[in-house]
Amino acid sequence: RAVVYAGTPEYANVVLFNPMINCVAIVGLTLIFLVIGTFGFVRSEKNR
Questions:
Q1: What parts of the sequence cross the membrane (predicted)?
Q2: The dihedral formed by the CA atoms of 21, 26, 30 and 36, expressed in degrees to the nearest 10
């Protein structure tokens, strides 16, 4: 949304956070869940 509404008067009403904050959140959560998922997968394969 930030890209679509950039430069328009509605930007402040539509976009909640800075696009960089959104990007950091997406990357951070992806890394966290990737590590947790890998840990769970390896643990389940060891118990096989």
A1: 19-42
A2: 60
Instruction: Give per-residue pLDDT as tens, 3-21.
Output: 889 889 999 899 888 889 9
How far CA 7 is from CA of 2, 3, 20, 21, in Å, comes to: 9, 9, 17, 19
Give 8: exposed, middle or buried? Use CB within 10 Å, 0-12, 13-18, 19+.
exposed
Identify residue 12 by its one-letter amino acid code.
A
Q: How confident is the model at residue 47 (pLDDT cuts 50, 70, 90)?
A: confident
**Helical H runs in 1-48?**
2-5, 11-14, 19-46
Query: How far apart, in whole angstroms, are the C-alpha atoms of residue 36 and residue 46?
Result: 16
